[in-house]
Amino acid sequence: MRVTDKMLYDGAARDTGTLRSELSKAIARASTGARFTHPGEAPAAAGLVTVDRARAARLDAIATTAERAADELSIADGALGEINNAITRARELAVQLSSSSYGAAERAGGAKEVRGLLASIHASLDARSGSRYVFGGRMDGASPFDAAGNYVAEAGVREVEIAPGVYQAASVRADVALTGAGGGTDVLATLEALALALEANDAVGVRGSLDGLAAGTSQLAVARAEAGAMMSALDAAVAASQAGRDAAKASVAGLIDVDPIQAALELSRAQSALEASLTATAKGLQLSLLDKLG
Amino acid sequence: MSDLLQILSSGAASLAAQRAAMATAGHNIQNANTPGYARQRAVIEATLPAERVTGAYIGQGARLQTIQQARDRFIEAQLPGYQGQAARSAAGSAALEAVSALDPEAPGNLGDALSGFFASLRTLAQNAGDAGARQAAVGAARTLALSFNRTRAGLEDARTGIDARVAGSLPEVNGLASSLARLNGEIRTARAAGAEPNDLLDVRQKTVDQLATLTGATPVPTSDGDVSLFLPGGVALVTSMSASTISAVGDASNAGHLALRIAHPGGAPQALGAIGGELGGLLDARDGALRTAVQGVDQLAFDLAGAVNTAHRAGTGLDGSTGLDLLDGATAVDGAAARLAVAASVVADPRRLAASSSAATLPGDGQNALALVATEAQALSGGLDAAGALASVTSAFGSAAAGLSAAASQDAALRDNLVTMREATSGVSIEEELIEMQKAQRAFEAISRVIQVSSEMFDTLLQLK
Predict the structure, then answer these.
(1) Contact B423 A51 (CB under 8 A)
(2) For residue B228, with 0-12 CB atoms within 10 Å meaning exposed, 13-18 middle and 19 or more buried, which class applies?
(3) Which of A101, A126, B17, B392 has the most crowded CB, counting CB atoms within 10 A?
């Protein structure tokens, strides 16, 4: 085939242009760390990246909210623990002061202590996470109990998403745990009755509160066990979501992130190819009959 | 005596032939880099008839027969089609490559905005009474709406930019078509004078190449020596010495984007069904992958807004409001992504974001926020959830761009191969031309020597006493 000067120059321009473009891409990959930026460079991967990113963000948000819910349950559990201590102390007082060996003065002192315990229980029932009353269920904007010990919040629980589309209760029903809603013992009323019996120096009445206090202790134990189970489930959800999120992020990274060693090798290869092409082109263009003719 | 004079006379003609060969080689060298130029060669032949002298024929030197162009008709017939196809795929590929609206790595992309919106709703669901979480959720909804607006605008801007390029190319196309018709006439006139107008042929070939690149038109030589051009679909762009005119008008059925029309000489403009080349590639991209992507984003915005609003209307805001939409503007699929916005009433008062299921369970009830969150995984009209639908739009666009890019590379390689073959036949080799010049120079010197010797012989005869 005839080879003209224009063919040589056009070919050199085309070849070096192609290699320079490759070098530019290799530099972009090495400097940005991204295997592709435009969907046209990797259509399937671009779609997968979108899905995996959404999955990672979804699981990250789930882990974050589940973690917060676990923290709130921890606050509720701590408050229930305080309440349990108060009831235990009330039981001790009731056992002690139901004995005929104690008189009115001791029982009046005991009544004061029980009133104090009731106040501390009310304070514990007003436990908050930020501005939210953790025992208010979904009505968490105000104290869930009125001064008389009546539960005035909602008889329901808040829910939190622990996996995509899977929801779990994330609050303790204080009305069940403390006031015996649904067939249990009203611990607050029992304590109030104990206080009144002590104030009235009524040993029989004091003794009569023991069963209620025992039932209340059991009730609280059940509530704490439920809270513990919820916290455990939430902790598991956090761990699972974080693992899922990390897997999704790893998938995104696998799709997008370029291997640094591979990127460096590609860059080196592109540089070498361009250098070789430029050298060959320069040598090829050096030879001309123009230089030989006198 | 007369023989010697004949030698002098034929020598002069032969010198003129060599001078023509020298001039042709020089012309070739001067046009070595001229686009469309085909090398020429002086064809020299022995002068006929030879003189008969006593039973023998004595030749009468040489003369210039013609200046011939080196062209391979087979390659020339194929090349316009490949040029048009390569230009078409390259233009389409470049148009899609320039669009960054769907880049998965772009900051603030639609996918991130979607995730951010649902993440903010999850936070709100957990603490529905929190003013900060509520404000953040409204902010994330606005970011999502803006991201839809931006993404669609990016795609639509690309389509509008293509319109501008198409409109900008039409004067060039029409000018070239007129030039081709005029060149056909000039070539006819020149041929009528008895010589092949090589340089005019080059200009015409270059014009054909340019029109093939711009429109995908294919040339058809006529028996009169003209070249007519036909667009894909068989519509004539140039017929011998008359050229049609292509124009563009807004097409209401295609969001006002330009539609091409063609007017034949003396006729009214009519819709142009098909065009190739660069213009065809641009229109392919505009009405193909870009339009599909715009429709996909609109559909996603419409479906998502519908799902979110359905959930939102069922809920109750912190102020007790209910039955409100969260996202406005998605009243119809077409243009939904461009119009999408957070409802003004919610922006004005974020308490109207209906995170709760009932007014009785305010403020901490985030049950309806969870219902809003559930729309993230809800199957939309295409059977995919929001992220899946966006991924589908992104992948489809990427596949179209990748396909065009691959086609562009392949078509360019085919075109380059033919261009190389054309260049191998018609291109100017400096070395060849230098050698031709040397040949002509040597011949010129030798013929001059013949004339000199003849002249000396003539002088010798004249000096006889």
Answers:
(1) no
(2) buried
(3) B17
* DSSP structure string for B311-362: HHHTSB-TTS-BS--SEES-SSSTTHHHH-EE-HHHHH-GGGS--BS-GGGT
- In the predicted structure, residue A258 carries a pLDDT above the cut 80: yes
Chain B residues 29-88 within an 8 A CB cutoff of chain A:
32-33
DSSP-assigned letters across all residues of B102-118: T-TTSTT-HHHHHHHHH
Dihedral sign (CA A133, A137, A140, A145): negative
The stretch B272-285 carries a mean pLDDT of: 96
Half-sphere exposure for A187 (CA within 13 Å, toward CB): 30
- Tokens representing B452 are 């000199």
For chain A, the domains span 5-33+258-292, 67-156+176-237
Q: What is the mean pLDDT of residues B326-346?
A: 95
pLDDT band, very low/low/confident/very high, at B113 (cuts 50, 70, 90)? very high
The 3-state secondary structure of B175-232 reads: HHHHHHHHHHHHHHHHHHCCCCCHHHHHHHHHHHHHHHHHHCCEEEECCCCCEEEECC
Question: Model pTM?
Answer: 0.87
User: What CATH number is given for A67-156+176-237 in this structure?
Assistant: 1.20.1330.10
User: How many residues make up chain B in this entry?
Assistant: 465
Q: Identify all chain A residues contacting B32, using CB atoms and an 8 Å cutoff.
A: 4-6
Which residues 332-371 on chain B approach chain A with CB closer than 8 angstroms? Answer: 356, 360-367, 370
When CB atoms are compared, the residue of B111, B122, B356 closest to A54 is: B111
Q: Is B116 on the interface with A (CB under 8 A)?
A: yes
Tell me what the mean pLDDT of segment B422-428 comes to. Answer: 94
Instruction: Give residues with Cβ within 8 angstroms of B267, minimum separation 6.
Output: none
Read off the tokens for A281: 């082109």
Q: Which residue of A has its CA nearest to B114?
A: A54
From the list B361, B394, B398, which residue is nearest A139 (CB)?
B361
Q: What is the CA radius of gyration of chain A?
A: 38
Which residues, 6+ apart, have CB-to-CB distance to B94 below 8 Å? B408
Mean pLDDT of A190-205: 95
B2 has a pLDDT exceeding 60: no
B424: closest chain A residue by CA: A2
Nearest by CB to residue A2, choosing from B100, B429, B434, is B429
A205 is written with which tokens? Answer: 């009445």
B382 to chain A, any CB pair closer than 8 A? The answer is: no
Neighbours of B434 (CB within 10 A): 17
Q: Is the pLDDT reported for residue B53 higher than 80?
A: no
Residue of chain A minimizing CA distance to B404: A40
Q: Is the pLDDT of residue B1 over 70?
A: no
Burial of A9 (0-12, 13-18, 19+ CB in 10 A): middle
Query: What is the least distance, in Å, from the CA of A288 to any CA of chain B?
Result: 7
Q: Which residue of A has its CA nearest to B102?
A: A39
ipTM of the shown complex: 0.86
Confidence at B464, pLDDT banded by 50, 70, 90? confident
Q: What is the mean pLDDT of chain B?
A: 94
